[in-house]
Structures are given as C-alpha cells and as structure tokens.
Amino acid sequence: MDSYLIQVNGHGDHAPMRDVNLKNTGNMISPGKVKSRKPRWAVRASEMSKKTFNPVRAIVDSMKVEPNPKKAMISLSLGDPTVFGNLPTNDEVTRAVKEVLDSGQYNGYAPSVGYQSCREAVAAYYNCPEAPLTAQDVILTSGCSQAIELALAVLANPGQNILVPRPGFSLYKTLALSMGIEVKLYNLLPEKAWEIDLEHLESLVDEKTACLIVNNPSNPCGSVFSKSHLQEILAVASRQCVPILADEIYGDMVFADCKCEPIATLSTNVPVLSCGGLAKRWLVPGWRMGWILIHDRRDIFGKESNADLCYAALAAIPGLQPVRPAGAMYLMVEIEMEHFPEFENDVEFTERLISEQSVFCLPATCFEYPNFFRVVITVPEEMILEACSRIQEFCEMHYQGAEGAQDLECDK
C-alpha cells in the first residue's frame, strides 16, 4: 500500500492537504480511507491593494453632509469640463471618431504602443529643433493617467522615492505608494503664484531619488511656470542628475496673456518623460486617449473671463485669499483659519459650505496642502457668480475678526 499527499484547492502554506491511501487491486487503483480536513478559503488582498490610497476619495467619501435643501447644488469640485454642457466637444472630433467606427478597420487589437500613424501625428505635433521627436519616441496610452503610471513604473523601483508637488494631484501619491515607492513632497509657494520652493526641493534629493514630477500648468493651483522658473527647475535636476516626469496634460490650456513652455524644449541634458492627452483640452475625458494632442482651433479655453470673475469675487471676501491662476481649470483659495475659529480645518470648512450653501469645493487637504480649497472654473459664468455669492454669504456668516476669534477660542 502506497501513501500520497494530494494538494486540493490551494497553494503554498495555506493549501489544505489530504492523506490518501491507495489500494492496488490488480490493474485498478481505488481510494481507500481518506484522512482530511475541510478545505478553506484563503483569498487575501494583495500587498499592492493594501498600499493603494486615494486621498481625494478618502476625504470626500467620508463627508457625511447634505446640501441645503433650499438651494440648488453647485459643484465646483469635479475636474470634468463636460458635466454642465456649457463646453461642448468639437464637432470635428466627434465626426472623426464616427468615421473611424464606421470604417470597421479599428475594431481589433492595436499595437501595444499605439498605431504608427497616430504616433507619427503626435511626434509631428511636438517635434521642434529644441526637442526633436520621431514616432519611435511616442507611446500611446489609455489617458494621461496611464501615461503617468507607466512613466513611474519605468523610472522608479520599490524602495526608491519620487519628488511630488504640494499641493499636487493626488494620483501621483496613489500610484507611487501602491508600487512601494516613497513620496517626498516639495512645497509650492502661494505668495509666488505657486512657484516651486527650489531650496526645499533640492534638500529632498538623496541617492534613492528616482524622478522629479513637474505638473505645469498645475492641478490644483491653475498656475503656469515662467520660462525662467522652468530653467531654474531644470538647473536643480541637472545638478542632482534627477530625470523629470512632466505632467503637461494642461499644456495647451493657458490664458491669453500666458505661454506654457514644454519643459523638454529648455534643456539639452535633463531627460524628460512628458505625459499628456486629449481629455481636458478637447473635452473628452471619458475617451481615455493619452498622448494625442491636437491644436485647439476653437480656442475654447483661450479666454480668461471665468478666472477673472472668480478671482475678483473671491478676493473681495474677508477671510479668503485666492491665488490668481494662469492656466488649466483651477483656482486655489487660502482660508484664513484664524478668522473662522469654529472650523478645525479646510475639510470642516468645505463640509459646512456644502450643508449651508450647496457649494462643493475640494478641500486642499486632498492635495497635501491644508487650509486652502480648490475651485473648478469651467462651469458656466452665471453659476460661477452664484457660487461666489454663496461663498461670500457663508464667509460673512462665520467670519470672526481678531477680537471675536479670540473670544470664541476662550469659550472652547
């Protein structure tokens, strides 16, 4: 009689085992008495999933607050320019996609790096003497988010660190931590229109630094770096031999009096992986088309009216200090918390703004920058004005001067 160990429904240390006796009866082998324990499930979340954390979702999803039922909800929190319908997608773009669908030629798998004709088009758009490109230098991705993910995966290994702006887009941290990559936050300076604190940035670099993320124009700040400031950033990267991951998804969305310089055109020695896509500029974020950048013939975002209106309205409100944007779709507002002592932080401030005024702005704690909130400025003009009016009413209700704030603190 022979004895065998048979593994059932499992792997490794958690696999249940059965000790099976087999009786040899001529040419037949039949199972004898089986000594076993009941198999059990051992499905566990992966280490990557445990490390995945989205600060925007963590904060927003935990907001247990209902809007004021007497006022229609105005959401200034979602960075999707299509939600209100005031910025329609260009007919030419829609027509081109319809023609491709009708042709029936693109229903199969595309090459993993994208169709050659598309890569050639992207290369032709970006190509310039200062930063030459060919189709071989282009990889098409599922939106700019995947471009950032792939770039991080190429540049950094677990145990290394990356330099990320604060305030900054939460995806960088979410992706990095899930990959076992440490995040070091460098400061942006609101008093300098959100330029990088270069001294602080350089102090964070060590032998494990894999890359520097530069987001220009910025989400959430709406800032656009000058050419001279980009050159200063490149000087740091050059001195420290740190490559740059440039998130330039908003590169073609700058106001009339500004120009956004692609950072790769300003350096001959710093390697740059630049990420972009169709999403915001062509008003199709749901299409998930990364790296395909097309000239904005309709000049949809070329006008500055909403930004000026919003900035001027918020700047007149006691207790708020907006920072004038120069591009993208956002404006950051500092809350002078000492004048709103009943609120512990920007999260409480924005929660009460929802419950009392039905205006939803993202607390900048989502972007690692407490005591600010972010406003999306692509909503229709009348909604911007109404939202600013409600924010003013809210602030006037809760604002405390220096003396009043001290009294309230003593009462606590």
Short description:
The chain has 412 residues and is of the alpha/beta class. It contains twelve helices and 15 strands.
Provide structural commentary.
- The protein has 412 residues and is α/β, with parallel strands linked by helices.
- The chain has 12 helices and 15 strands.
- The longest helix is centred in the C-terminal third of the chain and has 18 residues, at 381-398.
- It is globular and about 65 Å long.
- The model is unreliable at 1-26 and 292-302 (pLDDT under 50).
Low-confidence stretches: 1-26, 292-302
Which bin fits the share of residues in helices? Answer: 25-40%
Shape: globular
Instruction: Please give the number of β-strands.
Output: 15
Helix/strand/pairing category: alpha/beta
Major sheet strand order: 7-6-5-8-9-10
**What's the tally of helices?**
12
The whole-angstrom Rg is 27 Å
- Mean pLDDT, to the nearest integer, reads 84
Alpha carbon gap, first and last residue = 81 Å
Strand composition percent: 15-25%
SSE pattern: EEEHHEHHHEHEEHEHEEHEEHEEEHH
Largest sheet: 6 strands, mixed
Topology:
Blueprint: E1 2-7, E2 17-25, E3 28-36, H1 47-51, H2 55-60, E4 74-75, H3 91-103, H4 116-126, H5 143-155, E5 161-166, H6 171-178, E6 182-189, E7 195-196, H7 198-203, E8 209-215, H8 227-240, E9 244-247, E10 272-275, H9 305-315, E11 320-323, E12 330-335, H10 346-357, E13 359-360, E14 362-363, E15 372-376, H11 381-398, H12 402-411
Parallel strand pairs: 4-13, 5-6, 5-8, 8-9, 9-10
Antiparallel strand pairs: 1-2, 2-3, 6-7, 11-12, 12-15, 14-15
Helix pairs in contact: 5-6, 9-11
